[in-house]
Design a protein that fits this description.
With about 725 residues, this protein is an alpha/beta fold. The chain is built from 15 helices and 31 strands. The longest helix is centred in the last third of the chain and has 32 residues. It binds zinc ion (2 copies).
Length: about 725
């Protein structure tokens, strides 16, 4: 974890923790404990972080179970908040929730484990300072410094809400803001390392960024800063090579170490970047989720004695779909995408102007990672303003003999098509970066299309494709290579039969109603067999080499925040999609709440896109060992997955379930709750008993909270 980068003490901002608004929480210690006597001075430092404690008896926050307080924050950007806090009367650690609100209204949530003030000796790994207040007869009481990393580092702060868990009493004595530093500022205090990074030939933005990433992570590992641009006792050479490009592709790379020197040769600049991450991974560095707190960075000297490694991705395009949410930093997902060797992001936005608002911040981050952009959302209905209905009812769809201004449009109306085509062209004009546009119809299971006389013969798929063809013609007048997708989703998963795609219309396959317990081409799952048949029909109409897949492995709305792990489904699907000659798979990441459970499908999906034959169980064992500090936690994923299978199964959705299948599923569902879920919980508890470090402990506690959430939501799904 990247928590201990030195920051010059004067750069921190200390914030009063007890504004008038907290009066309710300021009285408990008066005359009781003698809090003011704990400290010799209002200023102290814990592990290099300065804190300022208001010395008055009432100048602390005390929160009983479930209580909340609100602290205004200065309008500056932050890398992290540091709390000087302790929990009283806790037999086991309790939980304190920190909700940060930013100046633009965005929020993010963090939960920290807080330990008892008497237990300082039990948690020597935690940053702490023990005091000996006379009120306790000189007995030691310990305050701990907790670092809460801020995800939205680009936004000014506004306020912090602290909420105590359901037991214990928390004292929050001081609050300090850690500033956002540039990499140069961050590494400046470190001594220079004897490892040099040399960029040979090309020094475009992607190669330069690769050198900077190596510099950052080597600094974090060794505590010394490797200079860029000079050889030293140990040297990493970064270069590109036409032969490697021919053999391994632009994204492929070769690592070759010899003594104190190692060369990373990329086919292209992106190959140099992925090779740099591969070198770090060979040293134990791991990127499991977006955000520094989810990265694993061992403290040790980097060894350049790496045997020759050559890698070439199975998929030339590797993707993810990102939906912006208020507690999330999109730049972190861009960063995570490159670290997991993804090169395509579909930004699925709530409104057509989203990219215009974000591009200034995100575009440089995407460019220096060589990432391609797709962009869109359910924008089509918005291109035909409903206010036109009174004047032009025939532009709108017909239902039961009446025109309606509710969904989509009448695709037999040339005027309606011209209207949306003009809007689509405007979207291309305003958004120069995206390559493929999604201008989807309404998000409906069915019933949003037209039943007028002219449309009567056209299926939903035919009607949707008619609209996309009209938009593609206008979009390509603005930019000849612009593409728009035909969305095969819900009522449009069946192939169009009367309309053919025109140039610039490509397929986006979004099988949201499929079953995720089984691979899409698993013959034992009738639901998926029907979907696979529809897809293969679509690929007789659309060019597979231009086809994109919008999958749902990371969609926490679909999974109701259960965060399942789907190693077998992912592996089977990706092999099947690749066998069909499809261009790219872009699983949708969307969640309504911050993640508690680790989102293993993100790393699994990226890893299997790079190497179809990678062993997902080995990946989960590595996650267990590196992220949770206990390889046995890999069994937790096995138990959890077994528990979720009967609950997430959709094999017979819309089909009569055979009696024997129904009774087996009932029995399996019951066993999930009495056997596999409890076993999964037990594995986490055992790991908590022997966990080595504070970071792993936090992750295990978060995972346990995620498991409890999954059990609650699974019960709701499993009820008949
Ligand atoms: Zn019509
Ligand atoms: Zn199934």
């Amino acid at each position: 974890m990247l928590s201990v980068m030195p920051v010059a003490a004067q750069r921190y901002t200390t914030v009063p923790i007890t504004p008038a608004a907290n009066a309710a929480h300021q009285t408990a210690f008066t005359g009781d404990i003698g809090f003011g006597e704990w400290f010799d001075s209002p200023d102290l430092a814990v592990r290099g972080v300065p804190f300022r404690i208001e010395m008055g008896e009432r100048d602390i926050v005390r929160l009983g179970p479930g209580q909340t307080c609100e602290v205004p924050l200065p309008g500056e950007r932050a890398a992290a908040l540091h709390l000087l806090a302790t929990g009283g009367y806790l037999a086991t650690p309790g939980e304190l929730r920190a909700d940060i609100t930013f100046a633009n209204g965005a929020r993010e949530e963090h939960t920290r484990e807080i330990v008892d003030w008497n237990y300082g000796a039990r948690y020597p790994g935690d940053a702490a300072r023990t005091f000996e207040p006379t009120a306790f007869g000189g007995a030691g009481k310990t305050l701990y410094a907790y670092r809460v990393p801020v995800r939205r580092k680009s936004l000014p702060l506004q306020s912090l809400r602290l909420t105590a868990g359901d037991r214990g009493t928390f004292i929050i004595a001081a609050l300090t803001i850690e500033p956002v530093l540039t990499q140069e500022e961050r590494l400046a205090p470190l001594p220079e390392s004897d490892l040099g990074i040399l960029v040979e030939g090309d020094d475009g933005p992607i190669t330069r960024f690769a050198a900077e990433q190596l510099q950052l992570y080597v600094s974090l590992m060794e505590g010394k800063r490797p200079p860029i641009g000079q050889a030293d006792r140990r040297t990493v050479h970064l270069r590109r090579d036409a032969d490697v490009s021919a053999r391994l592709g632009e994204d492929g790379f070769r690592l070759a170490g010899e003594g104190e020197s190692l060369t990373i040769t990329g086919g292209g600049a992106t190959g140099v970047l992925y090779g740099s991450y591969a070198l770090l991974e060979s040293q134990g560095v791991r990127f499991f989720m977006p955000g520094e707190e989810h990265e694993v960075v061992p403290k040790r000297e980097v060894s350049l004695a790496v045997a020759v490694v050559e890698e070439r991705p199975d998929w030339a395009r590797r993707g993810i779909t990102y939906y912006p949410y208020e507690f999330d930093e999109p730049a972190d997902w861009v960063d995570f995408a490159a670290k997991t060797r993804l090169n395509t992001i579909l930004f699925h936005a709530p409104a057509p102007d989203w990219w215009e608002r974000e591009r200034e911040m995100l575009n440089p981050e995407l460019e220096r990672r060589g990432i391609h952009i797709d962009f869109g959302g359910h924008f089509m209905p918005g291109l035909l303003p409903r206010s036109l209905f009174a004047e032009h009812p025939d532009w709108f769809r017909m239902e039961n003999g009446e025109r309606r201004a509710d969904y989509n449009l009448c695709p037999s109306s040339p005027e309606a098509l011209a209207m949306i085509a003009q809007g689509a062209a405007e979207i291309v004009r305003r958004n120069p970066e995206p390559e493929v546009f999604s201008i989807w119809p309404d998000d409906l299971g069915g019933g949003g299309w037209c039943h007028c006389e002219k449309c009567a013969e056209l299926s939903a798929s035919d009607q949707s494709l008619t609209a996309m063809n009209a938009m593609a013609r206008a979009m390509r007048e603005v930019r000849p290579d612009a593409r728009v997708v035909f969305l095969a989703y819900q009522d449009t998963v069946q192939p169009p039969t009367r309309v053919q795609p025109e140039p610039g219309v490509v397929l986006l396959w979004a099988p949201r109603e499929r079953c995720y317990v089984h691979g899409l081409n698993d013959p034992s799952c009738p639901r998926n067999v029907a979907h696979a048949r529809a897809l293969e029909g679509l690929l007789r109409v659309f060019d597979p080499a231009e086809t994109e897949v919008f999958e749902y492995y990371l969609d926490q709305i679909l999974y109701q925040d259960i965060v399942p792990t789907l190693p077998q489904t992912l592996q089977a699907d990706l092999a099947y999609y690749r066998s069909l000659g499809i261009k790219v798979v872009e699983p949708l990441m969307v969640s309504l709440v911050p993640f508690r459970s680790v989102l293993a499908n993100a790393g699994l999906s990226a890893g299997l896109q790079w190497d179809e034959d990678a062993d997902p169980q080995a990946w989960l064992r590595d996650l267990a060992g590196s992220y949770f500090g206990d390889e046995d936690v890999s069994q937790y994923f096995v138990q959890r997955e077994t528990a979720l299978r009967p609950i997430l199964s959709r094999c017979y959705d819309g089909i009569e379930v055979p009696d024997d299948v129904a009774s087996t599923r009932r029995a399996d569902t019951e066993r999930s709750f009495v056997q596999e879920f409890p076993l999964a919980w037990g594995i986490l508890e055992r790991a908590l008993l022997r966990v080595p470090g504070a970071d792993q402990r936090q992750r295990l506690l978060a995972e346990r909270a995620g498991l409890f959430q999954a059990v609650d939501h699974a019960r709701a799904l499993a009820r008949p």
